[in-house]
Amino acid sequence: MDGALPRRRFEADEPLWGENAAGDVRSWMPWVTVVTDILLINVAFLIAYWLRYELQLFRTVDPANDVPYSVYLPMVAVLTVLLVLTNKREGAYDVRRGRPFFDDLYGLLNATTTAIMLMVVVVFFYRRLFYSRVIFIYAGILIIVLLGLARLVRNMALTRMRAAGKGVDRVLIIGAGEVGRTVMRNLIAQPELGYRVVGFLDDDPIKSGADIGPIRALGSLDALPAAVKENEIDQVIITLPWQYHRKVIRLVTEAEQSGVRARVVPDLFQLSLGGVDVEAINGIPLISVKGSALTGLNRALKRIVDVAISGTALALISPLWGMIALAIKLDSPGPILFRQERIGMRGKPFTVFKFRSMRVDAEEQLARLRELNEASGPLFKVREDPRRTRVGRFIRRTSLDELPQLINVLRGEMSIVGPRPGLASEVAQYQDWHRKRLAVLPGITGLWQVSGRSELTFDEMVMLDIYYAENWSLGLDLRIMIRTVPQVLFGDGAY
Predict the structure, then answer these.
(1) Which residues, other chains included, contact 104 with Cβ-Cβ below 8 Å and sequence gap of 6+?
(2) Most CB within 10 Å of its CB: which of 99, 122, 238, 284?
(3) CA distances from 65 to 53, 61, 123, 131 (A)
(4) What is the distance, to the nearest Å, from the Cα of residue 155 to the centroid of all Cα atoms in its chain?
(5) Contact 280, 286 (CB under 8 A)
(6) Positions in the chain whose pLDDT score sits under 50
(7) Taking the CA atoms of the chain, what radius of gyration do you get in angstroms?
């Protein structure tokens, strides 16, 4: 360390009042939020005054109690201070990692309700009759609406900035086993959390010598100080098995001496972190193994949604289906539909349907095009594939070639949302951890399709697929379907 003091790093979850880091979003965003809240609280009260005294909404004002806005200024000042303090107590200014908008909204509702109730009590005991208690109800509703919209805009801005690599922590993962890969795919799947996984360390010669998609293998555990310095690491996440506790302590010490924060992820006796429930009773952590998210009622619900969407879509797009079929027939000889065997859930093969986008001899030409492959892993992708027809180029770019897969959805072989169904030749090349993506039905669209599509490496695709399988929810499906629309319209990453 040449006698130098360790660099001061920001911790991801610590309150950031008063921190000073030029250009770091975590240092100035809390203050921006505070100033915005103060302005919007005053705007909300001004509108409330207008509604009460100018419009006299719902109830007329007695002329004896008709007072100018300036009379309320002391009350507005007190209300502003109360709301800022109650919002701070609710964590509104901590800019926490991955704090959902509805958590922000719930905290805002609690803070505003508390502050408004205190103000009503103050007015009641103050006994100045010209003060309207109704105006505080108007103000409370407006404050929730305006500050809620401000929180939504802030969260969207933070998400975009972090997805673009601004205001993020550069993370080094120690350990590339099952726990380490679980952490990697969670961070890759949620760029809005503000973490960028730079690389990993592992003592296993096989693991430490092979990159995992864009996540570089940076050597053995002894290389920690050098890796931190050379790659400007902000955080170290240690994911070693539980029996290496002494080594974990040494690594934590080395990380702190290098000036970075170290976090330790327990592997919970080799349990998959995606399959564990953790709750606390009076601070005592209780760990239990949870079942797959896509079982029982959840699986039935997903199936109902799939049938409803695919059935409705097939009925609505029948004219489009006819136009595409006619265009394919007029453009080149061969069948309208392309049938191909793919591997579905639990390794079960099925026939996938697509509109034909290539010449009929495309499969025979595949061998000579192998050297042009632009994809990683077992995938085969060529941006300017010479086998495509004129119509094929258009329907591939717009993803219209995948519309017949709605038939596969109705037949129960696919889902609207899920991992991409792989070829048998691709699945044969899967590593053991890759096979976890076969735990759910394949889909027409999926998490990796809306996170970069063909621009992602194969390992990144698999990580996103496994994250989806382990964290499925109806809300996640809905978000993926909504994000698919602009991807299809603009053809990002599709070829």
Answers:
(1) 92, 148, 151, 155
(2) 238
(3) 10, 7, 14, 8
(4) 12
(5) yes
(6) 1-23, 269-271, 281-282, 291
(7) 28
**Token digits for 200?**
């990993």
Give φ, ψ of 471 to 5 degrees. Answer: -125, 30
Q: How far is CA 148 from CA 15, 56, 101, 136, 425, in A?
A: 21, 26, 9, 18, 51
Surface-to-core class of residue 188, CB atoms within 10 Å of its CB (0-12 exposed, 13-18 middle, 19+ buried) = buried
Cα separation, 127 vs 129, whole angstroms: 6
C-beta of residue 467 within 8 angstroms of C-beta of residue 437: no
Rounded CA-CA distance 199/223 in Å is 12
Which residues, at least 6 apart from 405, have a Cβ–Cβ distance to it below 8 Å?
Answer: 352, 353, 354, 414, 444
- pLDDT tens by residue, 439-478: 899 999 998 888 765 567 788 888 888 888 888 888 889 8
pLDDT at 190: 78
For residue 237, the SS3 value is strand
- DSSP letter (8 states) at residue 433: G
Do strands 195-201 and 216-217 pair parallel, antiparallel, or not at all (unpaired)? parallel
Residues in a beta bridge with 341: 351
Distance of CA 99 to the CA centre of its chain: 11
Give the C-alpha separation, 212 to 153, whole Å: 34
pTM score, two decimals? 0.59
Using one digit for the tens of pLDDT, what is the confidence trace for 343-387?
Answer: 999 899 999 999 998 888 777 777 677 666 666 667 766 677 778
Number of residues that this document lists for the chain: 495
Other CB atoms within 10 A of residue 267 CB: 21
- Superfamily of structural domain 169-289: NAD(P)-binding Rossmann-like Domain (3.40.50.720)
User: Using an 8 Å Cβ cutoff, are 228 and 260 in contact?
Assistant: yes
Burial-class residue 38 by CB neighbours within 10 Å (0-12, 13-18, 19+): middle
Domain edges within the chain: 25-163, 169-289, 296-490
CA gap 125, 134 in Å, rounded: 16
- Bridge partners of 340? 352
Q: CB of 178 within 8 A of CB of 272?
A: yes
Which position has the token pair 């989806």? 468
The predicted pLDDT at position 122 comes to 73
